[in-house]
Automatic annotation (TrEMBL):
Its main location: cytoplasm. InterPro entries: UreD. It is found in: Cytoplasm. Required for maturation of urease via the functional incorporation of the urease nickel metallocenter. One of its GO terms (molecular function) is nickel cation binding. Keywords: Chaperone, Cytoplasm, Nickel insertion. Belongs to the UreD family. This is Urease accessory protein UreD. It comes from Actinomadura harenae.
Length: 270
């Protein structure tokens, strides 16, 4: 009687990556401490020089991820009065993989009273053959402030897009302020047609939540004076915030459109 070598069974099981990285920020003596920086999977956190009382973290991607089948999460808690700025060193590239299941990329952000979070990562790129579902969940206290940028590039240079679905859910003071879902890529009806992206392959959003927007509410504004091949509109939310939605043919024009929105809203960029 013969038996298979010990590695045979493992070889039949496709590889998947499950990881959860965590950040906790707390106010302390006029500064922001970081008592928890737990890197995991492809996400490695690096402290950068603080800006006054604001702590600054950069996310490094230490491996290629996510691939189809991976489950990756980032959890961030910003305590009362703390001030945190999070960026990333490079784009996140969703890639195909041996597992016939979608990848999941979750971001969970909790910001307490009188705290501030700037979440400004580099884009997510949907490579051909990939299937990524991203969900950003945000829970804000009534006096919390948030600046969040999201950019999605549908396909690398000279290749078609993968499949990408994205959802942003924002709760403010225990009530739902925004719950938005979008889906792009092969097999999804109309995503590249004139009613959705109209041939553009870069889409971005800039979400700003601040008690200063409560009264008066800002008006809807179309960004029609920017010298790029992009289209953007800033709309007020049913609460203390605004949302910019922009589309562009490529990542460069999208970034320039977001830069113009930062300037229009009087916000520092970067």
């Amino acid at each position: 009687m013969t038996t298979a070598p010990p590695t045979a069974k493992a070889a039949q099981t496709p590889y998947t990556l499950n990881a959860t990285a965590r950040i906790t920020a707390e106010a302390a003596d006029g500064a922001t401490d970081l008592p928890l920086l737990h890197s995991d999977g492809p996400f490695s956190f690096r402290r950068l020089r603080p800006y006054g009382s604001q702590a600054h973290i950069c996310i490094l991607n230490t491996m290629s991820a996510p691939h189809n089948g991976d489950r990756l999460n980032t959890e961030v808690i910003v305590g009362p009065g703390a001030d945190l700025h999070v960026t990333s060193a490079a784009a996140t590239v969703a890639l195909p993989g041996p597992v016939p299941r979608h990848a999941a990329l979750g971001v969970n952000l909790r910001v307490a009273d009188h705290a501030r979070l700037r979440w400004l990562p580099e884009p997510v790129i949907s490579a051909a053959g990939s299937d990524l579902r991203q969900h950003i969940r945000i829970d804000l206290a009534p006096t919390a402030r948030l600046v969040l940028s999201e950019q999605q590039i549908l396909g690398r240079a000279h290749e078609p897009s993968g499949r990408l679905t994205s959802r942003i859910t924002v709760r403010h003071g225990g009530r739902t302020l925004l719950d938005q879902h979008s889906a792009y890529g092969p097999g999804l009806p109309g995503w590249d047609g004139p009613a959705v992206l109209a041939g553009n392959h870069a889409v971005g959003q800039l979400l700003v939540i601040d008690p200063a927007y409560r009264d008066p509410q800002p008006d809807t504004q179309i960004l029609d004076d920017i010298p790029v091949r992009a289209h953007g509109v800033i709309t007020p939310l049913a609460g203390p915030g605004v949302l910019l939605t922009a589309v562009a043919p490529d990542a460069g024009d999208l970034q320039r459109c977001l830069d113009a929105a930062f300037a229009h809203l009087g916000l520092p960029n970067g």
